[in-house]
Amino acid sequence: MQNSWCATGAPTGCTPGRKPADVFDISSLPWTAFTGLNLNAPGNATHMSPNFTFGKYVHREDKLFLPLAVQMHHAAADGFHTARLINEFQEMLADPSWLD
């Protein structure tokens, strides 16, 4: 059975049965704001890619808030690395000039 990562239209360099190292899971719950999210799914013990889940953005006091939950296997990164990732992402969102 062919792995979904190597289906028609998959990125170049895809190897059947093997997920590329530079991919991650992302999802969105745009209809709900949250302060925490925990994903518990079968097979998570070997899932090393980070999971990013965005929620419903809200305006408060002239600021825009976007909930973000990051779930990462501790064997792949610890809290220090996850915090660095989130802080750098927040800095990028605060100054979107990098999009030009």
From TrEMBL:
Q: What is this protein called?
A: Chloramphenicol acetyltransferase
The UniProt GO MF terms for this protein read: chloramphenicol O-acetyltransferase activity
Could you tell me which InterPro entries the record lists for this protein?
Answer: CAT-like_dom_sf (IPR023213), Cmp_AcTrfase (IPR001707)
Q: Which Gene3D superfamilies match?
A: Chloramphenicol acetyltransferase-like domain
Q: Which SUPFAM superfamilies match?
A: CoA-dependent acyltransferases
Superkingdom, taxonomy of origin: Bacteria
